[in-house]
Structure formats: structure tokens, C-alpha cells
């Protein structure tokens, strides 16, 4: 049978159900979102004279759940209008809608009896062949499906999303023994390609992989902290970015999850795993007393306004007070400083950083070693119960909790033989299959042979090749073959992607633009005159490009090196413009932060293939500057010029005002789709849900453009409104300054921006050459660098990471 998902029904509009519907909307998939009918009126409804039969009342619960979803921050939707993909209803009046769905997702309360009741109703109305899944976080899948029809059983499985579904990559897919293999295969592909998920197939065991690992190892962290007198701040300092984990670390994460939720999960998990000796970590007396005491006092976390942290306003300043784990009273924030952390925190490779920290003997080193060694051993223990392979465990931990490395990757970084020796010296009982692996002469969990990733399989007692997704291109693997590296300097490389397609890769710090990158851009353009089919501008760093190297710009301006600065800016303008008029297709592949010069590089390509999670903006105003590598020119070309060209009787002023506000207010689009609405992307540009596939899709786009006979545009002209437009924008600036929304320096920057966007004081609106706008950009940029207040903004940003209003 061929499966296709055109419409989904989500049952349950709580935090997860509503957010799942929102993410389906992000993927362009319409859904029905259903919840129960209220059993009594609210005082407000009674005051309006409503009854339980009124539609407004009957849809109250689903509406409130959806409204909470829409108000959540960070936002669950790519753009506000994506909400139109979700239709609200209730489980009594609209349950027949379930029969229209190709995929039915149950996301109701975590109670087996209620889930079974919902499944019985679904079985009565679903169409044959429709896929049904539960979003349970730990109830056995086979129990939820008990008593259902054969077709239901064959098309039923678990799909455990992590919250928030838009941002957390992991989707645990859990088949039961009667799930058809083709259903599992289809759902893996659909979730990977269409929803952008990292799919891990789990066994039908309590809490599956990620939550099983997190519950037990997280409990151990708290237990160890309580036994050895570590504070909340100390624990979060040692379990956050310093060991490759998010800033939420341990206690901030529990505040986010909710203490009551944590207690509920642990209480359910403990009796479900009687065979697991590590389950006793869930019932540590000190931790149980702590959590029960906090729940009694209403210290539930963020939803209660206080938990392990409490937000307090002191003298007009917001502070986060931390909980004293002994007294359960909040106290003013303290700084947790450890000599070993200070010594190693800047080690770039996270595996090497953890290794060095574990080797330290101070309180920080001892704590990190204890929690890491416990986590490594527990990860080994749960294989093969929750999964047969180490790759699934590593991916579940990385994708579910945003850890940089999975436990087996960390173990390899520490060195497996020496780590096992130290564990045993500490009295730890190392999982037997790990010792068997070492005894057989295998000293690592992963290795590479002939460019392939191999991982150790405990069942086969040997290495097996990891499954290869042809849509994932890894630049580091390609560059391992030096023949693939066409050119390289400290900030950029040219890499052969195969099939005649080059990749221009940035690898400077934050991928910020500097002269080395500009030189490699020139080299890339020269290469396109040869036999190459086209070029992808992309990389696999943390961000696509965070803009120009601000330190170099600030230093040159402070030293008055104006000729050098102008030459650098001109070099960047020329390099980007050369891509625009390249005889062969150039596709940029932006992702994550695409700021300032990064946005200009992106827009300078022939076409854009953007990751859905791309945050794009011309933010130069924040450091007292304006775009100077084509940002103003491109927004005029993309937003204002088409209005005049295709609707000559329309007024272009509102469109000019739109791009002026985007740049003057340093707005950053919250997704690639929002960036499209603002004009950074066109309707012809592509958005890719799964960032892992980005380079592959960009390469495919180059090949498609070349195959269809790509020709570069002729020399382009852009519409400049001249003096009339400038007057309108200057009035806007004056109004902002008079209202106190803009400082004198803000107004100076905005006036220069307005001058550039209008093409100066032209006596009448007219078409101008794109280089005319570039010259104005460069002139304004350099003049602003001569302002002391701009230099103050630059140095403040470099020192604090925050903009200065002066």
C-alpha cells in the first residue's frame, strides 16, 4: 500500500497536542485539533448568558489550548498565518472529522484507561489504512492498542515528540509487534523529510530511550549534589555548556519541565522497571524529600513563578534567586567559580574539554567525572533493552536534549580502556558487554574505515556500518580526501561536492566575514569560469554567518585606516555582486543566524535554499552602521522594484517604508518563511525542513538550474524614490526621535539609511544602476565608522554581546 499524509487529526489540545498541530502547520499540513467539551460554565460564560450548548462554550477547551500555543515563546509557528492550517473542534460535535485524516495523533492525558477509550472511538471512525499514533512519553504501546481491530493494530505505533516540537529534533518512533514494516518505513521517511525530524526507532519499553536515560541519570545528578553539598548554581554551571549541554543545564531544565511532572514521571517509571538496579536513583531519600517539600510549597518551576529559581526585581533590576537546597528558601544569586572550569572552558572540542575536566581533582572535576561516568555506564546498561545499537542512544540524547555529544561519543573522547579502568577503581560495576568489547581488542565504540562510520554492535560483537542517508553531505568527511579540497585558507575553503558542484565553506569564528573569505569568494568565482556546473555557499558550523568581523572593522576605524576600510568594503561588494552575475548558478544555503553581511551573502546568490530555522536580518544598526555589502540594494530590488515594474500605478512608498523599518529597527525574521514574507527570500527560493539535508538540497538546486539552462540576469537596475521618498522617511525618523524611541545617534544612522534607500536626493523617482546604490552604501558605512558613538557601540557589542543605545 502507498501511504500519503494530506490531513492530520490531533486529539488533545494540551501543550504537546497543540504544539504538534502547530508544527504540522509549519510543514504545510492541515490538521484538525480536537479536545473535550466542558462540563460546566465559567463565571464569564454565565455572565454572557451562554449555555453548555453554545459553540463558543463547547470549543472553549480546545480554543484555550490553541491560544496558549500561539502565545508561547519562542513561537511554535513559523509565521502567524500558519495558524490557518489548524481547524479547531471538539470530541463530541466533530469526532467524525477523524475519519478524514490520513494520520491520527493521540495526545491526551498520560493515563492508559483514557488512551484506550480514545483509541476505541478512533477505531470506529478511522478510514482503512490511516495511520494512528500515540504521543505517550512512556506507556507501553502494545497496551494502548489492546482490543483494537486488525487494521488499526497494523497501522498503529508510538510517535513521541519532544517539547517544543518545532525546536527539538528528536522523534521517537515506537512500533509494536503488529505494526506493519511498511508503516514504520513510511513514518520514518515522512517525519525525516517533511517534518524535519531526527527519527530514532525505539523498543516498546518504559519511557523508551531518551526519557529513560534522562530520568535515571538526571536523578543521579541531583542525588550526588545533595550528598556532597553542591548548590543549585554550582550544578547548573557544571552541567551546562561547559560539558556540551544547553544553558538550562539541570535545575533550570527541571523548572522548565515542572517539578510535579518530574515527580509523576519518576513515580511511574520506578515500578515499571523492577529489573533495573539503577532505578533506586529515582527514590533517593534526600531527593524525594526535596521534591516533595518543593511541591508542598508550590515551588513547581516556571509555571508557578518559582522553583529552583525565582525571578525577583531588586532596585528595578531583574534577578534570578536560587533555591537553598537545605532551607528551601530563595537567596540572592551567587557566582560559581571553579579553577578547572576557568582553565578549560575555552577548549573548542567539547570531547577534549570534558576529558580535561574529568582529569581535574577539584570539586568541579570530581563532580563532572562522577555524573559523566555514571551516565556512560547507564547508557551501556540499557542496551539492548531500549535499543539494539549505540547510535540510537547517542542520537536520542543529542536530539532530545540538545547535547553536543551522545554518551558513547563522550566515552570514546575520554578513552574507553582508561575510563573503564578508572570506573572499576571507583568501585563501579561496568556493563559486561563493554568489558567484552575491550577484551576482544576493540578499544572504541566508533571508528572510520574507507570514509564510512562504523559502530560497535554488542550482539554481533563486532563493528557494523552506520546506515547512510544519501541526503546528508558531511563536509568534514569530504575534506578528509584532500583531492576534494580545491582551495583553502584560514577562514574559508572550496570543496568539491561531486557532480561538478563546488561548495564555498566559511569556517572563521562565527563564520564572520573577513578578507580571507572575500579572497576565497573571488577564487570561487574564478573557478566557475572552468568546468564546474555551479556553486553552493554553505557550511556546517553553528551559524551560516553572523556578519562582518566586527573587531577588525572597529580596529581599522579606530586607527583611521580609511583607505584600507574602503578597499575591504569594496572587495566584499564586488565579490558578492560577481556571484549575482555569475554565468553558472550560485545557491546559498543559510541556516540558524544569518545576520548583517551573512544576509547580504545569502541574497547575492542566484537562488536561496534555506533551512526552515533560519533567523535572517540586517542588524548593522545595532552597532551604529548600515548594510554596506548590498543589503540595501537587494531589499530595494526584491521588495520595492517589483511593485514599480509590475504595478506601475501602485504607490511604492509603503514598500519602501517596510524595508526601512526592517533595517532601521534591526529586525530579525524568526524563520525562513517569515524572512520570505519580509522579502529576504523570494517565492522561487526553497525552504528545507531538515537541516541535515540542506547541502544536498542546495546541490540538487544547482544541478536543476544548470540542467534547465540557467542564464544570469542582465545588469539590474533598482527603483530609487529620491527626494520624495527621503522626505517621507525623514518624517518617520523625526517622529521616532520626538517620541523618545530614538536617540540622536539612532536618528543620524536612520537618516543615512533613508538616504541610501532613496538613492539620495534625486529630483524625481527613477531607475538607477545597482552599483549606484552600492556606492551610497559604502559612503554611508564609512562615514558612520567615523562617529565616536558608533565606535562605542562596536566595542560594547564585542565586550558584552549586547547592543548599546547611546
The name of the CATH architecture of the largest domain is Alpha-Beta Complex
Helical residue percent? Answer: 40-55%
Strand content: 5-15%
CATH topology of the largest domain: 2-enoyl-CoA Hydratase, Chain A, domain 1
Task: Give the total of beta strands.
Answer: 25
In a nutshell, what does this entry contain?
This protein has 33 helices and 25 strands.
Q: Could you outline the blueprint of secondary structure elements for this entry?
A:
Layout: E1 8-11, H1 15-26, E2 31-35, H2 43-47, H3 55-58, H4 60-71, E3 86-90, E4 103-106, H5 112-125, E5 131-134, H6 141-144, H7 150-154, E6 156-161, E7 170-175, H8 181-193, E8 198-201, H9 210-228, H10 232-238, H11 251-257, H12 259-272, H13 285-296, E9 309-314, E10 317-323, E11 330-331, H14 339-344, H15 350-358, H16 363-381, H17 390-401, H18 407-414, H19 416-425, H20 432-439, E12 446-449, E13 452-457, E14 462-465, H21 475-479, E15 485-488, E16 492-498, E17 501-506, H22 515-527, E18 534-537, H23 550-558, H24 562-580, E19 586-588, E20 592-595, H25 597-603, E21 607-611, E22 614-617, H26 631-646, H27 653-664, H28 672-678, E23 686-688, H29 694-707, E24 717-720, H30 722-738, H31 744-757, E25 766-769, H32 770-785, H33 788-800
Parallel strand pairs: 1-2, 1-4, 2-3, 4-5, 5-6, 7-8, 17-18, 18-19, 19-21, 20-22, 21-23
Antiparallel strand pairs: 6-7, 9-10, 10-11, 12-13, 13-14, 15-16, 16-17, 24-25
Helix pairs in contact: 1-4, 9-16, 15-18, 16-18, 22-24, 23-33, 26-27, 27-31, 30-31, 31-32
